[in-house]
Write a structure and sequence with these properties.
Keywords: DNA-binding. By secondary structure, the chain is of the alpha+beta class. It is built from eight helices and five strands; from the N terminus they run E-H-E-E-H-E-H-E-H-H-H-H-H. A five-stranded mixed β-sheet has the order 2-3-1-4-5. The chain is globular, with a radius of gyration of 18 Å.
Length: 214
């Protein structure tokens, strides 16, 4: 399971962004959430999903405007779930709390934690490995210009360079240049790998939990 906790950055100096963020979450993951995303305390929001792709897309969406510290917790949750995320609990929620606390102390404002920790295995996917790759993607996105985002959003939605050029009224060469400058191809390729690694990490964590329970 994946618990995504996000806390608004410098909320005392900015308008409350929770309502807008919750609407964005529901728009991109209407069927991927196990419970509706909600405000959990003050300017903090939380979402729960069992889908690695949904978890990853939520991180990308929340990080886009730079207004959130984001923590991802991976692990089992107590079943049956509560009526809301606030009424639910389990190791994934504890991991998300540790992750958001760590995220506030990092330049990327992102962190990932798992609970329980899997047994040491040099060949297994580790939380720090996935966190490092996601941090690189977030750094690439942070440097992207508005024009780069225009191209990236079209390519990420499945458009060809030709269709992107037609939609934006520019040449294919300009699309290629924006995609290259904005590292769109690199992000899209890395994203596929990261989603697979998140799913593997979730599976490994569940196995660790089963072993502990036994």
């Amino acid at each position: 399971m994946f618990v995504i906790t996000a806390d608004q950055v410098d909320s005392r100096s900015h308008d409350d962004a929770v309502s807008t963020a919750l609407a964005r979450i529901e728009a991109i993951a209407p069927e991927g959430l196990l419970l509706p995303a909600e405000r959990t305390a003050g300017d903090e929001i939380q979402a729960l999903t069992d889908d690695a792709d949904t978890a990853y897309r939520l991180v990308l969406e929340l990080s886009r405007d730079g207004r959130w510290s984001i923590g991802v917790g991976i692990g089992p949750v107590r079943l049956p779930l509560g009526d809301s995320t606030r009424a639910s609990t389990g190791e994934a929620f504890f991991a998300a709390r540790a992750a958001i606390d760590a995220a506030k102390r990092t330049p990327s404002r992102f962190a990932l934690r798992v609970e329980p920790e899997p047994a040491p295995d040099p060949l297994a996917v580790r939380a720090e490995d996935v966190e490092a790759l996601m941090t690189v993607v977030l750094a690439l996105r942070e440097k992207r210009t508005d024009k780069g985002w225009e191209v990236h959003d079209l390519l990420a939605a499945g458009a060809t360079q030709s269709r992107a050029a037609s939609a934006l009224g520019i040449t294919q060469g300009a699309v290629s240049m924006r995609a290259r400058t904005g590292s769109s191809r690199e992000e899209l390729a890395a994203s596929e790998a990261i989603v697979r690694l998140l799913a593997m990490l979730d599976h490994t964590t569940m196995l660790a939990h089963t072993t502990t329970e036994a």
